[in-house]
Structure prediction request, 907 residues.
Amino acid sequence: MPKVVIDGIEIEVPPGTTILNAAQRVGVEIPVFCYHPYLKPAGICRMCLVEVKGVPRLLPACVTEVQDGWEIYTNSDRVRDAREWLLEFVLVNHPLECPICDEAGECELQNFVFKFGEPRKRLYDEPFKYPTRYLGPLIVHQMNRCVLCRRCVRFSDEAMGGTDWGVYERGYRTIVGPYESDIFAQKYTFNMEALCPVGAITSNIYRYKTRIWKLDFTNSVCAHCEVGCWLDLGERNGQLLKVLHRRGYPSPWICDKGGYGFEYVNHSERITVPLKREGNRLRGVTTEEALEYVTGRLKELVEGGAKVAALASPSLTCEDYLLMGKFMREVVGSEYLDYRLYGGNTYPERSDVDSLEDVEKAEAYLVVGEDLSIHHPVLALSVAKGCKEGGSSLYLVVTGDSFLFKFATEHANPLPGGEEKVLDALSLALEGKDYASLLEETGVTGDTVEAMARGLQEKKPLIIGGNRLTPHGRTLLKGLGEKLGVTPLFLDWGSNSKGAFQMGFWSPGGESVEDLLNKCVSGEIKGLFVSSVDLFRDYPNGALVKEALSNLDFLVVHDMFFTETVAYSDCYLPAASFAEDGGTVVNMFWETQKRNRAFKPKDESMPLWQVALGLSRRWGCSLGDYGGIEDITPQVKERLSQRLEVPTTTGGVRASHLKGDIPALFEYPFYRAGMKTDFCNAFVQLAPEPYVTLNPEFGDELGFKNGDIVIVEVDGNQFRMKLFFRDEVPRGGAIVSRGFSDFPITRALKGLWYRGIELRAAKE
Amino acid sequence: MVGPLLKGLRVTFGHLFKPAVTVKYPYEKRPVAERYRGRHILKLDEDGREKCCACGLCEAVCPAGAITLYGAEDPEFKRSDVGKIAETYEIDYARCIFCGYCVDACPRGAIIMTTDYELTVPGPGRRHLYKDKDWLLEKRGGE
Prediction:
């Protein structure tokens, strides 16, 4: 092992270590712009030059590997001189607008000039002036401030697999930025902003609002999906203004939903007082009155022999599920609970994958039934890294994948509803049986399946089963896993499905949400408690939801905004957002994480566990002596360590499309896929209205043009939408967007996110 | 015994013939020093645009924590020549100690202190002592 001396400190490092990494080990600081621990070293900025005894010129520390016996000086006169010169050159064209720059306070250039620079400027030429580019609602690009470290470009190339972001021109005229796009929003844009060491890329959402040193940062966990990225929530005066990802865990990168999808917390339309129905109106009341009213009505129903059910979003904390479950079971005496409100009748399952590093290490991937980049974006980045850096093969059986297809070895792009058939065919192909008949209506060729089967047998794959899979699909995938000797990793909706399951927030009788809603229609269930979810937006059967809600005697909604579900309610209780309440969550690898409270809930809003406590107290029963969240957590921990028996579920419907129509998949656009994204202004601007996408060739066949207005007809329901051509859509199928609360697309669905649709041009 | 009494009376009667030092305050005002630190003004530039760019240095340096400000963008440069203005700017005069650090810290000379010391507010409570941007801003056309 090479032995080196850095500034008089001797250290032995493994061969191949760079000078910078060796210096970091002994705690010697070397300033860097272009180096970033999670990107490949580039040696561009020359900020890290150090002197090595016996070597005539200065060496860049971030790319030079140490040799045995080197004496390295990081603070000699020559090195200090070089740094001063470099900073002076950088500052020649830097606008020095720190007072108005949002990066000030966390700017590396500012810090380095303060530490290593000379307060002088000898070149008084007029600096280059580039216009400020507003690249959509997420980021602002100001080329004037750029120090040309190319971190953003390298991230775009290395992690995202190359997007429209690069380096143009040469020398001191070099420009970094997008070549074509006027709006730059590529699912992982946040990382480019976070990587920028200066203020060249800044957030448009946080733009000029306040200064970084005025924010109080609290470590918490993202509530948008179950990858469970740690976030730092920057709060000032009861407002969530900025999110950072300082901890770099579980992945160094996060997605835009985590980084920018927090605006709903401060939204002006948020209702923070309880409402009570009086005739046709909902009137604001005190919390006391609302809780009394709810308790009274529920008691009446229960004493009258009717049943009451509770439905809660899969993104709440374990504490919420635990206490609400206790309230329903012990006080109300009802076993009808559920959290699986995005459809599907599956329960979480364990796998042998423990972290994203394990995912990156896999030799091959088989991804089935979910566009990972929409619902588990960071997992998609890890898979992409495994393919790009580890050279793993990627087999996709996904309809309309929009990100991972760039890395795929074999991509089966079946027609909507055909994913499970291809899966069936794949498992038959593994056994060497005939599967041709299964592929008939899927649009996938036998060659693809054959190649996949061969590839899967060569390398041990990591099987990822997405949240679109029905119980039938999961069984198929488990069978396939058994043949290959691996346990699949199954993904769920929401950010805490696993926690909700573990807290027992489901009906022991095995009823699905559909069964519960049917019970509402039949009159068995007369009271319903809905928490933090708009059933009309997220449950894939709008007609059933409507019928069920209108048949109820009493509906309580605990939410943050006035959604359509609230319009049906008899009482509305204001909910606290994820930043306003702490708690335990369980991520996709069954790892327990702790959300912390960043600030107090606004006005009268309460987390669900407080509602459960308040209701039970007014009922005259006690759930236990809980003063705060920390009193509940020990019980949660105890429950989390148990292994629960999963009731077997059946698919009911096996996904297939209707003949004669165009099979369509109803999928969220990325920027509408998280919770409450209808109330994130930037996301609303990025995905303002629902649209339908077709394959260009198929669209031409049907006689449409890109950008046409079309009518989508399902069962007599007509929806007017814009039509776009996208290459990733399978030929012969369509992808219709959902997730717009003011656009009742769920009315057209029957419990699955697939349906046959008719398309025709809209009459002008 | 009479001596000290006369001595004292001499001072008393002496003042009868000197000009009075008392000022009839609301009607007459005493001149103040040129560099007196009175209430603040947010300056405007020649075009009538706000000089303050909401950099937050006054807020950071204020030892009494009297200043609160939030920035906003002015994309058309109508209200600021750098495109950034203070959306809200509040000084809590119940806290302000008139140290003048905010003036020192300001990189653009946007906040200055005037010689105006008349900060009496009507009514009880502190609410009247929170001064917002409208009150602090130098009146257009010159006051």
